[in-house]
Fold each of these.
Amino acid sequence: APPPRLAGRRLLVSAGPTFEDIDPVRFIGNRSSGKMGFAVAAAARAMGAQVTLVAGPVSLPTPPGVRRIDVRRAAQMRDAVLAELPGHDIYLGAAAVADYTPAETLPQKIKKSGETLAITLVRTADILAEVAAHPQRPRLVVGFAAETQDMEAYARDKLHRKGLDLIAANDVGRAGQGFECDDNALSVFWRDGRHDIAHGPKSRVARDLLSLVAERLEALR
Ligand code: C5P
């Protein structure tokens, strides 16, 4: 039998949402379930890769044979990803990282008072773009793009702007795929190519995506 497709490869994958704390009881989160990133981690392991999974706050079991690092906030995810970067051949950013975080986390619970309440948010670092520009950049950097319109144009713009090798776009406006779902469908773009992965269970979609990743990695040499 031929060796598994990702034998000897080291994959770093981020998954899940991030929770940005406002005070001791409240946070800003998002609807990412982590299922796609966890499916990628499990499939990559099954395909022979050594896998490190940086997971936001989700209650999913760790896939067998996968090394998992749990984080909560975008800033913690960034620190964990950058610390793990050396030695990895592939970075796949499947996490739905918060774009904004509260300017400060209050030490006490905010009390009800006025009719309105304003919370100042500040931009977070773009982990994916930072990984792609890093001196220890993995040979293949893969991003995700959740889009509701003009998917290819936005995905290709992200591919160039963030300096990625591949971008996997999903149409989150469509029922039965994407966030909080067991199914997904992806359109994957690279500089001079496109490959569509048919709608189905995230486990199969993950395997198809990783076959493409393996192929792109082989094309590099
Ligand atoms: O720009 P946008 O958020 O649509 O890009 C999505 C991709 O960028 C995903 O791969 C996501 O993991 C990554 N990302 C990141 N850090 C951020 C925001 C997004 O790594 N702060």
Amino acid sequence: FQKLKSGLSKSSTKIVSSISSVITKRKLDDEALEELEEALIAADLGPVTAAKLTASLAKSRFDKEVTDEEVRGALAEDIAIILDPVAKPLEIDRSKGPHVVLVVGVNGSGKTTTIGKMAQHYSAQGLKVMLAAGDTFRAAAVEQLKIWGDRTGCKVVARETGADAAGLAYDAIESARAEGADLLLIDTAGRLHNKKDLMAELEKVVRVIAKLDASAPHNTLLVLDATVGQNAHSQVETFQSIVNVSGLVVTKLDGTAKGGVLVALAEKFGLPVHAIGVGETADDLKPFEADAYAKSLMG
Ligand code: GDP
């Protein structure tokens, strides 16, 4: 919880100061509510969520004297209610042999790092984890995944740069089966500037995986970089149009004041948020907990 709190400190500092600039001790009239709504929009919670939160405050406290602490406390409670339904850890089914997780997202969002962190987490739980370097386009991405493989003691299936990503996914599943792996994490390319190519590539990867195991991929995780703020919405829409996104991991919450975007995403898409990234090391992937997140965000 402390790590989460310090990770989210940039977001909470911004929100706390913008709320207290609207309210220190004040009557919660229409004007105060309007200013509060604007402050929440500025904190990346999005217009729909901001309106919903202020309406809820108005319902219980309209025209009453309130303090900023009281307002933040009430907001944290309402935000936790929004986040609660999406706060779901990833469930790995060991009987799947292997449970296949496809990891998608734009370049730089933190896919490879998240895979490395997940490899560490699930290996520590006693699962046999394998990694597939499916971003075959970038040599650096393959190298980076191999480093995570060494670090976590997990085997990495890779091919030469430019190799067919679907072919690699095929090899990886065969290899994971042969080795009796419980979990296979497949990295993918994220060249969003060429959406047609990316779409063709990801669709082929999914098709080939399903050929080997009709129930796979068992999860398709979209990794989102929180620092992009409202842009995250269009990334969700884009990837939903290409693959069957089953859940989110939101990264880089340590380096941004845009932590409110997660609330807006939860409200809009209702996709499970499996974990959050609050740093670059193996231990910096944290479970996403509604109450802790809401409280950390509201200082
Ligand atoms: P990919 O292109 O989607 O595979 O992204 P990478 O995994 O290579 O990550 C891009 C950069 O973001 C790297 O420098 C990572 O160390 C960094 N990164 C990833 N996740 C986090 C996070 O949660 N917090 C911080 N501060 N940096 C992160």
